[in-house]
Design a protein that fits this description.
The protein is of the alpha/beta class. It is built from 10 helices and 15 strands. It is 35% helix and 25% strand. The chain binds NADPH dihydro-nicotinamide-adenine-dinucleotide phosphate. NADPH dihydro-nicotinamide-adenine-dinucleotide phosphate binds next to α1.
């Protein structure tokens, strides 16, 4: 097919294995040709499991394949910057996992490099692509609850044993709940409200098995323009709590029940003086939409659902949470 987008995967990761390869393949233009891992045996095993033709032990050797036009980066967080810059330099379009980087200047470097090179860059924030969150956004925009005055986000779960690795134990790899979970909240809240917060205050803790300097729980309060207050609870150590969101307004509330996840599911309820109304949801794999929007951008018929700029912003907000937790100060958010 003339418009086929041939992908190389950077990172033999769980998310690539469980979701992204399948989402790419579901797209009529999506073909996965190669995978690179820092360990060639891991790359080969992944390629064999997922029927991928080529495996590599170095990013550069995979990027040298001219047939590959797009890469998906899902290495550990500290590797996103070098991997993305190398791919952009090689002229590939880049779908990069969050956080784009661990420093804002580095994330901006990726955005600038993609713009200079004329390639598409997107951040793989999935929540804004879920049917549940799109329904919530649509209710907010329709004025179904009047003026929004507050939001509560419950993004607290427990990692499966297979993922109790660098996230809990390796600060240098970008571990900790803030760079894993809070960063998604920042993107979701900006999606809901179409605005950036003004200030953020947070307290973090390590109550699980990881080293004390890597936080596994954080609670934060955010102020958005228009006197909108947001409360977020993000954690790796809450095994059995509901994961959802509440949006409250002058005329009602929206309850998103079990909607902070990767898998399709959950419920959205509009509660007003007329009672509760459940919003019907067409449940789809959230990553399919991210892939479809990214490919549309490559084919000049759309734009990424979450751009590189969105990735810089979500990192900026996660870093404000981290800074507040570390210093005890309330952090003002620069709007540029
Ligand atoms: P994994 O821990 O599964 O994989 C991350 C990296 O760890 C891999 O790229 C691989 O490196 C290395 N690795 C994998 N298996 C092993 C092993 N057995 N021994 C040693 N190293 C191993 O991470 P995730 O898939 O959970 O996350 C990857 C990225 O995706 C992160 O940036 C995360 O933030 C993001 N993510 C995003 C989600 C979203 O919804 N947008 C959801 C989940 C994760 P190598 O490739 O060099 O072999």
């Amino acid at each position: 097919m003339a418009d086929t987008v041939v992908w190389g995967l950077i990172g033999a990761s769980t998310i690539a294995r469980e979701w992204m390869v399948d989402s790419i393949r579901k797209h009529p233009s999506g073909k996965v040709k190669a995978i690179v891992s820092s360990d060639l045996d891991r790359a080969k095993a992944f390629a064999s499991d997922k029927a991928i033709a080529a495996s590599y032990a170095s990013v550069e050797s995979m990027l040298a394949d001219p047939e590959i036009t797009a890469v998906y980066i899902s290495t550990t967080n500290e590797r996103h910057v070098p991997d993305a810059l190398a791919a952009i330099e090689a002229g590939k379009h880049v779908l990069c996992e969050k956080p784009l980087a661990l420093e804002i200047a580095d994330a901006q470097k990726i955005v600038d490099a993609a713009q200079d090179k004329g390639v598409v860059l997107a951040t793989n924030h999935h929540l804004r692509n879920m049917e549940s969150h799109r329904a919530i956004k649509s209710l907010i925009d329709q004025g179904a609850i009047g003026n929004v005055n507050s939001i509560r986000v419950f993004h607290a779960g427990e990692l499966p044993d297979s993922l109790k690795t660098w996230r809990l134990h390796d600060k240098a790899a970008g571990g900790g709940v803030i760079y894993d979970i809070t960063v998604h909240n920042g993107d979701l809240l900006r999606f809901y409200l179409g605005a950036n917060p003004i200030r953020i205050a947070a307290i973090a803790a390590t109550s699980g098995a990881g080293p004390k300097r890597i936080e596994d729980s954080v609670m934060s309060v955010w102020e958005f323009p228009g006197d909108i207050l947001v409360q977020c609870h993000d954690s790796f150590v809450v095994g059995h709590g509901p994961r959802g969101v509440e949006v409250h307004g002058s005329k009602g509330s929206i309850l998103g029940i079990d909607v902070m996840s990767q898998a399709p599911g959950g419920r959205v309820i509009l509660r007003t003086k007329d009672g509760d109304r459940e919003i019907p949801l067409e449940l789809k794999v959230t990553y399919d939409r991210g892939i479809s929007d990214f490919i549309a951008a490559i084919q000049n018929s759309g734009k990424p659902s979450s751009s590189g700029d969105d990735g810089v912003w979500s990192l900026k907000l996660a870093k404000a949470v981290a800074e507040s937790a570390a210093t005890g100060r309330t952090i003002s958010i620069e709007q540029t």
